[in-house]
Write a structure and sequence with these properties.
Blueprint (H helix, E strand, L loop, with lengths): L3 H12 L9 H6 L13 E2 L7 E10 L2 E5 L2 E4 L4 E8 L5 E6 L1 H13 L10 E4 L4 E7 L4 E6 L11 E6 L1
Parallel strand pairs: 2-5, 4-10
Antiparallel strand pairs: 1-8, 2-3, 5-8, 6-7, 6-9, 9-10
Amino acid sequence: MVRPIHIFAALVVFSAVPLGVTAPPTMQAIAHEGADDDDYAAGEPGDAKKPFRVLEVTISEKDGAMTFSPPEVDVKLGEQIKFVIRNAGALKHEFHLASVQQNASHLIEMRKNPEMVHDDPNVQTIEPGKEAEMLWRFSKPGEFEFACLIPGHYEAGMHGKVVVK
């Protein structure tokens, strides 16, 4: 579902492009549908002034499989987790925290535009040999997913589960 605010944002971005000229890929990537506060299935961005638990996640590729370690995380309802995500692999990867359904929908969009650039609090892109951090408060119970939605990565096993009780 496209919300009016996203249509407006796309019009603002593309209004700077003269008629008849195709926007460069970077402008197309920026104009993807971002997340609104109500789109965060797994909770909301954390507050660094409040207590949090640090959880290290390692991304790697080995023997044709792409994995997150640990593959599953248990969290208490209301708990804040500071994910420290290390890319120990040779490829660029993502850490996309959402519901399974949201990730499946976004995976389709990523296949259409594999160079998509994300600017959402629930997504981190990590270059090989680098690390990123994400502070997240799990304010909703249930099972959620962290995944790499770069085309081919999810299919190679790059997804994990967060259980919030």
